[in-house]
């Protein structure tokens, strides 16, 4: 119980700090990236570009990224949010109007972060340059979710862990499937 109390205190401090100290201009850039990532548009667009311009490697990277993204979304939004039921950070902690534009669903975990990290992590082994390029917007999405008051840092960490696990599970499943086909 003490651990949960400590996590909540750290969550509060980091949420308040991120919401108050990130400059408005940076916040607008973060919001624009998050808006692009809304409903996985950014990651699907990246997959299209990879498949179109990247040849066989690009198609493999795009397929791995989209499969991992789907798994992470299913786990984070379809399962964990339904079980957790955690309220969003209190509006009074957030000193800007972005707090008015947040969902009503459970705060834990961050589905945006889960999708971003799953896609990026699944793409990277097949096409490291594309993975590195995706890492910046993925990180920006994670920071924005806290800065906007939509999530606590522990929600974002949970989403990132789900994304990493989804990418690992997707790649592992594909490897097992390919091994059995031979």
Automatic annotation (TrEMBL):
InterPro entries in alphabetical order: PAP2/HPO, PAP2/HPO_sf
Q: Which Gene3D superfamilies match?
A: Phosphatidic acid phosphatase type 2/haloperoxidase
What is the membrane topology noted in the UniProt record heading this document? Multi-pass membrane protein
The entry's keywords: Cell membrane, Hydrolase, Membrane, Transmembrane, Transmembrane helix
Indicate the segments forming the Phosphatidic acid phosphatase type 2/haloperoxidase domain, all copies.
Answer: 63-171
Q: Does the keyword DNA repair apply?
A: no
Report the SUPFAM superfamilies cross-referenced here: Acid phosphatase/Vanadium-dependent haloperoxidase
Q: What is this protein called?
A: Phosphatase PAP2 family protein
Which species is the source of this protein?
Answer: Streptomyces pseudovenezuelae
